[in-house]
Request: fold
Amino acid sequence: MRQRLKRNSKSSGNGQKSPMQAVEPYLVSIIIQLANMPIPISTSQDLQLANSLINGTRFKDELQWFEK
Reply:
């Protein structure tokens, strides 16, 4: 995700697309807003935030399938 943001690209290349790709803009927006407040969050908190965003949605099931 970070590399795609650096190169200002929404595409991750020719490989399989991450199921999180649809959620990433929302996640990035929340993280940026927290940083501007200033409430920076750690990497583990980022992961908890991402998991809470997809919990109970189709993205969670797709991510579990993608990781196998």
Observations:
- The chain has a mean pLDDT of 81.
- Residues 4 and 11 are 7 Å apart (CA to CA).
- The first helix runs from residue 2 to 6.
